[in-house]
């Protein structure tokens, strides 16, 4: 099935340079996401249409819910807890050293509450990145290396499969996953071969299908766990970046987008680039897992 979104599907005209990693907070009935290059953390309450933006001190490359309240943001090299009420940012852990030349990119929690975060050279300028998992003791452990652009982290509904993409490869990798230990198992056949654009952020619905944004191609595709394309959502912008399910029934797919590196003539042709979109999905999504960590301040 093919659907086409338009400017009428813009839920918030936020003009993000690089919107990323949205998640729905059921407790707050609000959507959180980041504008990586602003850099800022964003929160939108659809019921009241309140949009809050908090400037961040450095690249803000991802956000996840914190089980203790508030959110955890990935910055250039570190992760930090942010309390929206007090507007307090508390550094938690360093993921990569400052002299690595990399920055963090993409952050998601697995069903057991571990944080997964990638690193990369900005704009994918080198194959120098890695994928890390951070447990509740806030100690990062490298899981994969030689990554150019880490993206698309999500899990099957039963927690037995992890999906991950190096955007430069085009497809989405799959690994067996032990949710109890957090370890990757057997490498499964990748999915999403031959689809236009780069594999950017993803979300999994209640049927186990993967909704994947295709950066550069202006599409969101719904893939079966075996990789069959069953839905294609055409967008009026070329740079969709990530998606998540939200609203009380988790039937609304929110889609972040970017306007970075678009030439002036392209911005004229894409007046909605960088805005937040939404569409209704027949199948609901899954609640977003929160990061369960024992707080200790970074020395």
List the helices and strands and how they pair.
Blueprint: E1 2-4, E2 10-12, E3 19-25, E4 30-35, E5 40-45, E6 50-55, E7 62-65, E8 71-74, E9 78-83, E10 88-94, E11 103-109, E12 115-120, E13 129-134, E14 140-147, E15 150-155, E16 161-166, E17 172-178, E18 183-191, E19 198-204, E20 210-215, E21 219-223, E22 229-234, E23 240-246, E24 252-257, H1 264-269, E25 276-280
Parallel strand pairs: 1-22
Antiparallel strand pairs: 2-25, 3-4, 4-5, 5-6, 7-8, 8-9, 9-10, 11-12, 12-13, 13-14, 15-16, 16-17, 17-18, 19-20, 20-21, 21-22, 23-24, 24-25
Write the CATH fold name: Neuraminidase
Structural class: mainly beta
Which architecture does the CATH hierarchy give at level 2? Answer: 6 Propeller
Shape: globular
Tell me the number of helical segments per DSSP (H or I, 4 or more residues long).
Answer: 1
Specify the helix fraction band. Answer: under 10%
Q: Please, what is the average pLDDT?
A: 97
Q: How would you spell out the order of helices and strands?
A: EEEEEEEEEEEEEEEEEEEEEEEEHE
In the CATH hierarchy, what is the class?
A: Mainly Beta
Stretches with pLDDT under 50, minimum 5 residues: none
Determine Rg (CA atoms, Å). Answer: 17 Å
CATH-level-4 superfamily name? TolB, C-terminal domain
Largest sheet: 5 strands, mixed
Q: Assembly state here?
A: single chain
Beta strand %:
over 45%
Number of strands: 25
- Give the domain tally: 1
């Amino acid at each position: 099935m093919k659907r086409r979104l338009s400017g009428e599907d813009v839920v918030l005209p936020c003009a993000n340079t690089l919107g990323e990693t949205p998640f729905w907070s059921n407790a707050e009935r609000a959507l959180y996401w980041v504008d990586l290059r602003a850099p800022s953390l964003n929160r939108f309450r659809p019921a009241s249409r309140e949009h809050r933006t908090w400037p961040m001190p450095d690249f803000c490359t991802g956000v996840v819910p914190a089980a203790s309240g508030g959110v955890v943001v990935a910055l250039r090299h570190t992760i930090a807890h942010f309390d929206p009420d007090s507007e307090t940012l508390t550094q938690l852990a360093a993921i990569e050293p400052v002299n690595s030349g990399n920055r963090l990119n993409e952050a998601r929690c697995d069903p057991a509450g571990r944080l997964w975060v990638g690193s990369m050279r900005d704009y994918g300028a080198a194959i120098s990145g890695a994928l890390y998992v951070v447990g509740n003791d806030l100690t990062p452990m490298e899981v994969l290396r030689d990554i150019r652009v880490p993206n698309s982290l999500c899990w099957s509904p039963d927690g037995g499969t992890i999906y991950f993409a190096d955007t430069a490869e085009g497809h989405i990798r799959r690994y067996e996953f032990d949710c109890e230990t957090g370890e990757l198992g057997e490498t499964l056949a990748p999915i999403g071969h031959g689809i236009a654009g780069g594999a950017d952020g993803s979300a999994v619905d209640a049927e186990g299908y993967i909704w994947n944004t295709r950066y550069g191609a202006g599409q969101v595709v719904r893939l079966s766990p075996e990789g069959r394309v069953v839905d294609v959502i055409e967008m009026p912008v070329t740079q969709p970046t990530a998606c998540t399910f939200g609203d009380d029934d988790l039937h609304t797919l929110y889609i972040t987008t970017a306007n970075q590196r678009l030439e002036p003539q392209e911005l004229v042709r894409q007046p909605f680039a960088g805005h937040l979109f939404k569409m209704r999905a027949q199948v609901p999504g899954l609640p977003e897992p929160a990061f369960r960590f024992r707080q200790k301040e970074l020395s």
